[in-house]
Design brief:
3 strands, 3-stranded antiparallel beta sheet, alpha+beta, 44% helix, 4 helices
Length: 84
């Protein structure tokens, strides 16, 4: 399986969208500070993921979710999460 995931920084409130084939390991790496892009934004909260059987599909979805339309999609998809 290939996963696209979204993390939310508790420090700055921003999102990080990524792709992996080992979701649990990747989230642990982020929260241990082993990822350059997120090490200064910890702690990170896992808020969303999608699974795909095909790596190219997952990478394309990651690219979309990082776009303006993709961010709109996530805000709508997670509207109850963000209403809290």
């Amino acid at each position: 399986m290939h996963y696209v995931y979204v993390l939310k920084s508790d420090r700055d409130g921003n999102w990080y969208t990524g792709y992996t084939n080992d979701l649990q390991k990747r989230i642990l790496e982020h929260n241990k500070g082993l990822n350059f892009a997120t090490k200064d934004r910890r702690p990170l909260k896992f808020i969303y993921c999608e699974a795909s059987l095909n790596e190219k599909d997952a990478k394309a979805r990651e690219k979309y979710l990082k776009s303006g339309m993709g961010k709109k999609y996530l805000k709508n998809r997670l509207k109850f999460f963000f209403a809290i």
